[in-house]
Structure formats: structure tokens, C-alpha cells
Amino acid sequence: MTEVEVKKTQESLQDRLAQVVELLHRQRVVEDLTHRQEGPHSDRVGNLVHRQNLVELQRKLDDLHSADVAYILEALPLEERLTVWQLVQADRDGDILLEVSDSVRETLIADMDDHELLAAAKEMDADELADLAPELPRDVVHELMEALDGQQRERVRSALSYDEEQVGALMDFEMVTIREDVSLEVVLRYLRRLKELPGHTDKLFVVDYDGVLKGVLPIKRLLVNDPEKQVAEVMASDPVSFHPDENGYDAAQAFERYDLISAPVVDKNGKLIGRLTIDEMVDLIREESESEVLSMAGLREEEDIFASVWKSLRNRWAWLAVNLITAFVASRVIGLFEGSIEKLVALAALMPIVAGIGGNSGNQTITMIVRAMALDQVSTGNTSRLMRKELAVSLINGVVWGGVIGVVAYLLYGSWSLGVVMTAAMTLNLLLAALMGVLIPMTLARLGRDPAMGASVMITAVTDSGGFFIFLGLATIFLL
Amino acid sequence: MTEVEVKKTQESLQDRLAQVVELLHRQRVVEDLTHRQEGPHSDRVGNLVHRQNLVELQRKLDDLHSADVAYILEALPLEERLTVWQLVQADRDGDILLEVSDSVRETLIADMDDHELLAAAKEMDADELADLAPELPRDVVHELMEALDGQQRERVRSALSYDEEQVGALMDFEMVTIREDVSLEVVLRYLRRLKELPGHTDKLFVVDYDGVLKGVLPIKRLLVNDPEKQVAEVMASDPVSFHPDENGYDAAQAFERYDLISAPVVDKNGKLIGRLTIDEMVDLIREESESEVLSMAGLREEEDIFASVWKSLRNRWAWLAVNLITAFVASRVIGLFEGSIEKLVALAALMPIVAGIGGNSGNQTITMIVRAMALDQVSTGNTSRLMRKELAVSLINGVVWGGVIGVVAYLLYGSWSLGVVMTAAMTLNLLLAALMGVLIPMTLARLGRDPAMGASVMITAVTDSGGFFIFLGLATIFLL
């Protein structure tokens, strides 16, 4: 949308958030007061203070960059969020909607009527419209599409036809294209006539008459070369380009690796159809690592921290339910050995140590493997080597820490054989943790799933049931 | 360093890695063969094939971007990594050293002699030298500093005087500065004389005669405005700028928020001393989320997946040791109730369910809070509201899932009261998990620590010991 000049303020974002919260609280106090003292006079005073507060708050918001307003909206509980949202100038609605997280956006859209939504959406570019469309009411989308010209409508349709994570859904259409048979002087004059260049324009796209990409002209080269030269002499003729059906995460890695600012997107025939820019890629990099953290812990998606209790429950139930089943299995494993525990109750006290250390060690392994897989560092060629290393680490940990715990068990219960069983069980469970810590994410990946998905829940399940079985089994054989 | 033109190949990075591994394996087979058949003839054949393989591998590497070679080095086990490293052309050593991860860089530097290191480092800019210096042998650094001119040496010293995460250590010195009282035409001519612009130049820095930053001139504006205009008319006079002692992560967030490509760094007096660029910031964003994942799982730092076993152990021991102590505490909690378990052995089988579900739910909460804290969304103003929400979620989970497990316990052991105790213990432990899931990261942050640090280990410790105590305690009171 329009370019906003970012000004540096000395206040940190945290400070600005604190100021807004402060104003909102003062506001609430005033409302409480006017509510309590219902005399006509106090009401008028209340109204006055009320209005003063709102005016001050509105002034604060007007001074802030849209991204900062978005940040403040995300950090506020629903009720206060909507108070602030209503104070934002209508012409900034669109910008801010594009900045907030999905879950917060939903709450804001729910608060707007069709008229406001239409006004906010009308200033957006085709790619931005496509981002927002799935969350808008159907008739608003319909009306918006009607209002677009043919090319724009086509672009929105095309962007919507791709997966959220495909390049085709991430690209924008704000490209400056030039021909290769003109001089740099002509290009410079052409740019001057444009009055404004799209954001993140670090290169111009060189296309032929059919729109096929012939190369890119980095602005840097345009500036340092003799204006008499032809574009074809100066351009880079074989630039990194992407296809609309490529995975966006791969594109983001390429941006990171090759330090790109923007890159062309071409169709099967080499025709230029859009471009990717670093800002979208940065968002993607952030999202990717976030979703890794979340899915390892067994959360379905990013949560608005002030989401309703019901939404939070839905986000967390799937993996809790899985965990319930695995915990039940572990419990039945112990049930198998109830006879042994009755005879030697120390087993009940010691068994969680075996399971717990196994879980912790397994989580370390699985975290490292998931990390390496996200960076594409794990291939079939090196799996067995990785496995050997993890097993070696576990073996040493088992002998050392298992030994320590074995001695402690002896000191507590005065039985050498109990100590030895403890050490052996710890070592075996750590080996199991290493084995599964490598195999679980790899198997998930081979099944085409996200290797981080519930990784923590699953490895803990294995080390719990496994740990109980190994320890109680060994104890039953050797101690009873 | 020098600008490399990135060309698009149709092969993915994974494919290229596979090719290198393939060549390395063929290489090893040849070596094995020549070793086994020690006749003079077979030896010569072996040598020939040997050399052919190496030549092919070298050609492959020469075609690759430094970032891609770095990726391949990271994905190879030590021995093969060094074989590849020796094949890389010496003049690319510096570039590649700057691209690889810290742990891999260490292994590469250990393989180079002083002469090679000096050659690699001599082509670097001051900021790159400063990045590398802490890992180089002391006498190499000394010799390098001697070889630098006064300004460069001063820059390296200054960069080294800051923390790795401060803006002063992240900035570079490749700025194009102009005066405000010249016309755009003059600026354009000046740029042409420079022959090459530094990477990521999206704006020129406008300074006065004392070097004080007056504003920035975005290249976009330079291109679209009338060349007759003065710089002062066109520049942005109050740009986002940073101080060298600011936190790099805050700067990275500002880059993300305001979609910056580069930004000036100024000292206390407003004098321009360097600039930040988006590529460094992207690396930082990636690192930040990585270190969050790792420290939650109780890993000290990023691990070279082929790190020696000894290194891996050091990386993981600290938190394993902590876990050992917490597991021991949990074990002693159970020890307190050995009498109860002897009387009702079903308790031993059921208690891990209470602890396990608590741990899982606590991990979900703590992950979400750590995430929100990293994004600065948690402030003192909203803590209590967050806490209420988490407690409500836990209460519902406890009643629902605890209820299910209670019924299962009844069906298994035929005791209603056991089922009720189970449900109550689950609910209480989930409430404990929610409470600590919010309090642990907040307390760590208030103590100035990383809120993600070992978060997973700590929450599990609380829900284990707490879960055992609550369940066995309730059982002892109500069932025996």
C-alpha cells in the first residue's frame, strides 16, 4: 500500500504499549466512576475526562507506524483491543489488518461491518487482497471482486489458487519491467516518469515482447554504469528465479543463502508473472521456526495469547488426547509388574527416574535432529553415522549418570543388585531414547509429515513405557 | 567481500549434496581397493581413478555459490568435510568461513595453517574480520592487525569491543555518504565514479562536515526525482537509526516490523559510524528462534550434527544433570508414600498418568508464554489475565480428561473412590502446570535470564514431583 516513512522515536515499543494500557485503564476507571455516581453533574465530568482520554489515545495511535499499532493490538486482551481498534483511523484499517497475526485478525474482522471491510480492502494490492480474502465474509469478497478490473481480478484468482505456502501465494505483482535493447539513460528517464517505485525494488526485470524474462538489471549496476550502455550489456542474464508452485520455505532459504532482496517468479514458459520480496520471506522464516517450536510441544497453531478459553482448548486437545493414550499405555506396562512392585516397593519410587532421564535425553536428541532436518542437513547418506553418534552419547550418559543413580539407589535401599539393575535400565532406556529420537522425525518425514509434529509427546511416550518396561522387567528377572 | 552473481540451477541443494556424497564414496572405495591389492599396477589404476574423482568433485565445488559449499560442509561428517574443504579454491576460503555455522567453522580453522588463515582473512572487511577474530589463533590475529591500515584497525577494535549480540558487533562499515547541499545530479555522477556500490545499498547516508547524520536518501527517491533537486529537499530527515550498544535482536525486530533493508548506526553525538543490513538481521532472526528451541529442550547451543561425542556430551550434560536431581526429588516424593503403595499397588501404575499429562499440558503453556515473551507481548499489565485464562483451560482439561481417566481407573480397579481421587489429582496437577508454566518463564525473565532456558526440564520437574505428591497424598488421605 502507500509508503509510510518510518520515524525513529526514542521510546521502545514496550514503553508505547505501556502508555496505551495506562490510558485504557484510566478510561475504565472513569467509566466505573460515572457508572457508580449517577448524578447528572458527575456524569458530565466523567464524559469530559472520558473524551479527553480517548483523544489522547487516538493521537498516540496516529503517531505510530501500522506495524506498531498491530503489535499493540496483539498484546491487548479482546475488549481493550477492540476499543483501540475503533480509535484507529479508517484509512489505516487495511494496513493494520495485513500486519496482525491471523488469530488476532479474525477478532478484528469480526468487529467490522461489511461497509468498513470494503473500504479497508479497496486500497489493497491484488496479492494483499488474496491474503485477506479467505477470512472475509463471502459477500464482501464477491463485491470486492466485482469492483476490480480484469487484470487485478485475474491476479487475485491466481494467488488464491495456490497453497498458502507456495510461491504463487506469496508473490506480489509490483514489478518494474524494461526491455534489453534500450540504454540505461532511457531506463533512468522511464523511472523518473513513474514518480514512485514499488517497495524493495533492488532490481528491474528485463523482459522481451512476450513477457519472457531475459534477465535482471540490479539498481546498483544501473547507477554505476555509463548511461550510454545498453541494458543487455549490463544486466545479469541468468538470475535466481522461482516458479509459482515451488515451496515458499525453499524460496526463503534461497533468499537467506544468497542475500536476495527481490527475485522474479516465472511460469513454465519463462514468462515473468510476479516477484518475491525479502519482507515476505522474513515473515516466513519467523513463522517456520515458530511452527516448529509449537508443533514440537503439541500445539496445533500459533495462539493469540488472549484467545478465548474454548479456542485454546481446541488448539491443545489433539495432542493432550494422544498423550492420555500413551500415558495409559505406560500405566498398563506398570500394571504388568504390579506383583513385583508389591514385593519390592522401592521399584515404584525408582522407576520414574529411569523414565524421566530417558525423556529428557530423547528430547535433546529429537530437537537436534528436527533442527538439522529443517536445515536440510540430514540425508540418507549420513543417517547411520548420526545414529552411531547419538547411541555413543547415550551409552556414555547411561554408564556415567546411570552409575551415579545406581550408587544412590544402593545407599538408599542397601541393595547392590538393585543399583546394578538401575544402572543397566538407565543405559538401555537412554539407548532407546537415542534410537527413537533419530527414527521418529525421520519416519514422519518419510511419511510426508512435519518431523516436528508432536515430537516431544511421542518421544516421551516411548521413553516412559520403554523405561518402565526395561526397569521393571530387569528387576523382576534379577531381583525377585 | 566480492559480489558473486547467483545463478539458478535446476538442481536442488539436496541433489547437489547427494552428488558430492556420491563422489566422496566412490573415492573411498577406490582408496580401499588400492589398499587391498598392493601390486604396482593396480596402484597406478587406483591413483588414476582417484585423481579423476577429485577433479570432478573440484569442478562441482567451483560451480557452487559459497553459501552452498558452506551448506555441504555442514552436512558432511568431519573426515569427508575436510576432504571437501581441501578441494575448495584458496581464494574462496574466507567467504565460506563466514558462511558456515560456528561449530563447523571451528573444525575448518583447526585444519588450516597460519599461512592459509592469513590469506583467507586478508580479503575480509573490518566487520567480517571482527566476526572471525575470536576463533583465530592469537598470532594470526596479531599479524592481521599489523597489516591493516589505521582506520581498518580501529574498526576491528571497535567491533570487537561489543558483545556478539550488540548492534556495534553486527554493523558493517560499507556506507556511501553524501552531503545535503548538492543536487541529485551530482550524487548520480558521484555514484558512477564509485564503480561499485556495497551490497544492500537501498539508501545513501546524508552527513554534515562533522560526520553527523542529517538524513537518508533512499535510492528510490534518487531515481524518481528531478536531478536538479537538492538532496536536502528529497531526503528523509528523521530515519530509523540505531546505537552501537543497542541489542541486536531489538534491531532485528525493527527491521522486520518496518521492512528495512539497511539502517544507519550513530553514536551518542549523532555521528554516523556504521550501518546494519537485512542479511545480518535475517541471520539473527533465524538464530534467535533456533536458540529458543534448543534452550527449551535443555541444549546449551547449536550442535554440529557431526560434532564429536565428547562435544555433544558437554552440550547436553548441564541440563541432564539438573534433570537427574529433579528426577531424584520426584523419586523421594514417591518414597514418602511407599507405605501407601504397598497397601494399594494400583497407585504405582496410575501415578505416571497424573504426572505425564501435567507435563504435557505444562509444556504447551510454557511454550506459548515463551513465544509471546520473545515477541514482547507479555507485560506486567496483562499477566494476571493470562494466568486466569491458563487456569481456566487447565480446569476444564482436568475435569474432562481427568474424568475420563477416573472412569477408566474405576473400570480397571473397580473402585469408585480411586476414580474420584484420580480425577481430582489430574485437575490439581494441571492447575499447577498452568501456574508454573506462566510463572517460570516470567521469573527467569525478571532475573535477567533467558525465559526459554531449560523451560521444558523445569516444568516437567514441577509436574512430576507435584503430580506424585498430589495423587499419592490424596490417595493416602481418602483411600487408606
TrEMBL record, chains A, B:
Source organism, top-level taxon: Bacteria
UniProt xrefs under NCBIfam families: mgtE (TIGR00400)
PANTHER family, A to Z: MAGNESIUM TRANSPORTER MGTE (PTHR43773:SF1)
Swiss-Prot/TrEMBL keywords: CBS domain, Cell membrane, Magnesium, Membrane, Metal-binding, Transmembrane, Transmembrane helix, Transport
Residue stretches making up the CBS domain: 171-233, 235-291
UniProt membrane topology term: Multi-pass membrane protein
Entry protein name: Magnesium transporter MgtE
Compartments reported by the entry: Cell membrane; Membrane
Transmembrane segments: 317-337, 349-370, 391-413, 419-440, 452-479
Alphabetical list of InterPro entries matching this protein: CBS_dom (IPR000644), CBS_dom_sf (IPR046342), Mg_transptr_MgtE_intracell_dom (IPR006668), MgtE_N_sf (IPR038076), MgtE_transporter (IPR006669), SLC41_membr_dom (IPR006667), SLC41_membr_dom_sf (IPR036739)
UniProt function note: Acts as a magnesium transporter.
Gene that encodes the chain: mgtE
Subunit: Homodimer.
